[in-house]
Amino acid sequence: MTITYVDTCKLPTPYGIFNMHGFADSVNDKEHVVLTMGDVTTEAPVLARIHSECLTGDSLFSLRCDCGAQLQAGMHKIATEGRGVIFYLRQEGRGIGLLNKVKAYHLQDQGLDTVEANEQLGFGADMRDYSILKPMVEHLGIQSVKLMTNNPRKIAAMKELGLQVTERLEHETGRNPHNAHYLATKKGKLGHMLDGE
Ligand SMILES: Nc1nc2c(ncn2[C@@H]2O[C@H](COP(=O)(O)OP(=O)(O)OP(=O)(O)O)[C@@H](O)[C@H]2O)c(=O)[nH]1
Ligand SMILES: [Zn+2]
Predict the structure, then answer these.
(1) Is the CB–ligand 1 distance for residue 118 below 6 Å?
(2) How far apart are CA 53 and CA 131, in angstroms?
(3) Is the pLDDT of residue 197 over 60?
(4) In sequence order, what are the residues at sequence separation of 6 or more whose Cβ sits closer than 8 angstroms to the Cβ of residue 93?
(5) CA angle centred on 74, ends 36 and 54, rounded to 5°
(6) Domain range list for the chain
(7) What DSSP designation does 78 have?
(8) What's residue 189's pLDDT?
(9) Any known ligand binding at 93?
């Protein structure tokens, strides 16, 4: 087992008080956290978001992507429902890491799209591995989820892991002039289910 549960604490936020559960990934040397609210072990599907770390969007208010807005909207929806889970996975830059994302952004500043930039750097368009979710879901006693996402790969990954997704809830927010091309590439090249223009 590469994922080990470490400990749990309270995390008060503007949206409400979450429980924050820490998990160590010894193989990849990563530290993941999962936020839960309410009893997530009962049978009704748990409102869930699988969120990949985006330092620039989540913490530095970047408008290049939609990550920060999606994280906040997810926390808000969970708090409104009083029950839910956010898997905050340390897969910065779709798994290429922060400094490679800086390089990818530099290439995008020169006109490449997000997929072309990754490929020019020798990476796949999306290098994320979702198998780390399984031990976390099992540890937390979650039986099934209704997933807030526009990314079909996340749903496919959950199914491959044998984790039950009962519903996909659209999670489109944070569109702005700076991320319009990024969102168009997500829709056109990565298959994201995005409607808005
Ligand atoms: N390589 C690369 N990664 C990016 C870029 N923009 C954002 N990211 C990363 O993309 C990831 C976005 O992950 P999520 O918030 O889980 O969203 P998603 O996979 O697009 O799917 P949704 O659930 O629909 O939001 C984060 O790890 C960001 O750091 C980019 O231009 N290049
Ligand atoms: Zn982002």
Answers:
(1) yes
(2) 16
(3) no
(4) 54, 100, 101, 104
(5) 95
(6) 3-91+128-189
(7) H
(8) 77
(9) yes
Please give the model's pTM, rounded to 2 decimal places. 0.95
Q: How many residues does the chain have?
A: 197
Q: What is the DSSP letter of 180?
A: H
The pLDDT assigned to 111 comes to: 94
The average pLDDT across 159-182 equals 91
The CB density around residue 52, as the number of other CB atoms within 10 Å, is 20
Catalytic one of 25, 83, 126, 153: 126
**168 is annotated as an active-site residue:** no
For residue range 78-130, what is the model confidence (pLDDT) as tens digits? 999 999 999 999 999 999 999 999 999 999 999 999 999 999 999 999 999 99
d(CA 90, CA 80): 26
Q: How far is CA 96 from the centre of its chain?
A: 14
Neighbour-count burial for 132-169, b at 16+ CB within 10 Å, e otherwise = bbbbbbeebebebbbbbbbbeebbebbeeeebebeebe
- Residue 192 confidence class, pLDDT cut points 50, 70, 90: confident
pLDDT of residue 1: 58
Q: Which atom of ligand 1 is nearest to the CA of 114?
A: 31
Q: Does domain 3-91+128-189 have CATH number 3.30.70.1400?
A: no
What is the number of the ligand closest to the CA of 154?
Answer: 1
